[in-house]
Specification:
The chain is built from 6 helices and 3 strands. The chain has helices at about 1-15, 30-35, 40-75, 80-105, 110-135, 160-170; strands spanning about 25-30, 140-145, 150-155.
Length: about 170
Amino acid sequence: MKQLSLLIILLMLGMSTVQAQYSKVAYVDMEKIMSSVKEYETAQRELEQQAERWRQEIAKEYDQIETMYREYQTREPLLSDEMRKSKQEEIVNKEKAVRSLQKSRFGPEGELFKKRQSLVKPIQEKVYNVIQKLAKDRKYDFVFTAPDGATLIYAADDKDLTADVIKNLAK
């Protein structure tokens, strides 16, 4: 609903310019575009393969922790208090290490995120540059993503009212 309102407001602002020109609006289907770029498909495959290898590695670590815990439960009655505490700490520390590994691989700033940035960002920039060139060449004022129209990909510089709003607020 917000995106639709934004689109309507932008269209109304564009239509009400002093020059009484109409705004040309276009949209692009980013999923379709990206799936047509071979480098993107290759990058996605590489990322999925790497993620799967890391998931398997982490799963093995959790299996080891489970094995350690089962062994601990089996031997617990035979262990001294000191040995019990030592084994519990060993299991807890192993669990912390695996969670830390998981975060370093899959977290918001993890290796997978960085690898995705290095592989996909150049492709996205290439696509954006093509969209921007087409928009300028064909004199579009705005280009949005489809089907939701939620993301503004391109806006003509003369359609930006930010400076005018700031200037009028200061009055």
